[in-house]
Amino acid sequence: AIAATIAQFDLPSGLKPLVGMETPIFPVKMAVYGDRQGQPGTIIMLMKFPAMMATNQQQMDQQMQQQMRTQGMGLNVETTKQVTYTIRGQPVQVTESIGKDPNSGNRGRQYLAMLADPNGPLMIMLTTTEPPEDPAKLPEGEDTTVRLTEDEVQKFFESIK
């Protein structure tokens, strides 16, 4: 229900709601989706900030990073580049970072975008990991892990309305 007040989008197959939060004093909304609790292979976090924060991207970035750490998300980033997706009919710069998951050691990709909105900016973070190089090191239940291709990531971002 919280995600519906943040944005409309096509959720990639295999992901489900994990966490939703809305703070009344400082009106920030957050919705997190993933393939499972614990150490998900793919996770999407959406955060909607109040309109008054539209000019303070640094503060929004700090809030997003704090929430990522709280949720046990994020990568140890090795390389970063900008990709452009068409979101809401506009070209949007998305930061793609490549690195390793600090929990599993698996390689992964992390995408971060900020969308302007009259009701307040929206930040979106998506992380998806690769399977371990040695298939014998797959943890139990790993066969149900959702791993998104670059095309699937682009399709998700471009579905945001």
List keywords for this structure.
161 residues, alpha+beta, 7 strands, seven-stranded antiparallel β-sheet, 18% helix, 3 helices
Overview of the molecule:
It is a single chain. The chain is an alpha+beta fold and 161 residues long. Helix content is 18%, strand content 39%. It has helices at residues 2-6, 57-70, 150-159, and strands at 16-23, 28-34, 42-48, 76-87, 90-100, 107-115, 122-129. It has a seven-stranded antiparallel sheet. Strand 1 and strand 2 form a beta hairpin. The mean pLDDT is 83.
Quick summary of this structure?
With 161 residues, this protein is an alpha+beta fold.
Oligomer: single chain
Number of helices: 3
Overall shape: it is globular
N-to-C CA distance: 16 Å
Portion of residues in beta strands equals 35-45%
Number of beta-strand segments: 7
Instruction: Output the radius of gyration.
Output: 15 Å
Q: How much helicity do the residues have? A: 10-25%
pLDDT below 50 for ≥5 consecutive residues: which ranges?
A: none
Sequence of secondary-structure elements: HEEEHEEEEH
How are the strands ordered across the major sheet? 1-2-3-7-6-5-4
Mean pLDDT: 83
Largest sheet: 7 strands, antiparallel
Which class best fits the helix and strand makeup? alpha+beta
